Amino acid sequence: MIDSTSDKKDLSWFYLISSTSLVMSITALLFRWGEEPMISFSGNFQMNNFNEIFQFLILLCSTLCIPLSVEYIECTEMALTEFLLFVLTATLGGIFLCGANDLITIFVAPECFSLCSYLLSGYTKKDVRSNEATTKYLLMGGASSSILVHGFSWLYGSSGGEIELQEIVNGLINTQMYNSPGISKKKWFQPILVSNYLLNISHKD
């Protein structure tokens, strides 16, 4: 709305509004430090000191990213509002990932900021390298997302149809899936599964 009603040459307002919103989010997060853990959104999201550390880092990086991108946006002559929208949406996805408490949120939150990463990598449409990077990033992201969903389906089925993390742990203990012959005989495969999950998360970042 501000973009459609304001002077196109006056770009300082957009940076000011985006940076101010991020600073206010950091301030609210710091005021909440030390409070009791809280679970919201019907158990889909949780807040505690450990999660808030990573949320603070994400907000701080986004706050620094916006002023550092001023010269880049001016050189490329691309639309500013879309760029800021992608950065803020990616930040929101990262914050939700830090507090995710179930499989659905763990999947949707990385997709939120990964899609924005695809758009940011191809933001300069006139650059051939940007278009190539977007295509490769999209293909790798689709493959990693499918592998991640496949792993989630194992957890969902093995825990008896649970999606919350603590309920999944309780379900695996109750069904004694961790003690089954098919799993105990293949413990050599566990480091590969862990490394694959970390690669998926790092790729989404």
Automatic annotation (TrEMBL):
The chain crosses the membrane at residues 12-33, 53-73, 80-97. Pfam families: Ndh2_N (PF19530), Proton_antipo_M (PF00361). Keywords: Chloroplast, Membrane, NAD, Plastid, Thylakoid, Translocase, Transmembrane, Transmembrane helix. GO terms for cellular component: plastid. Residues 1-71 form the NAD(P)H-quinone oxidoreductase subunit 2 N-terminal domain. The keyword Chloroplast applies. InterPro entries: ND/Mrp_TM, Ndh2_N. It comes from the Eukaryota. Residues 100-183 form the NADH:quinone oxidoreductase/Mrp antiporter transmembrane domain. This is Uncharacterized protein. It comes from Arachis hypogaea (Peanut).
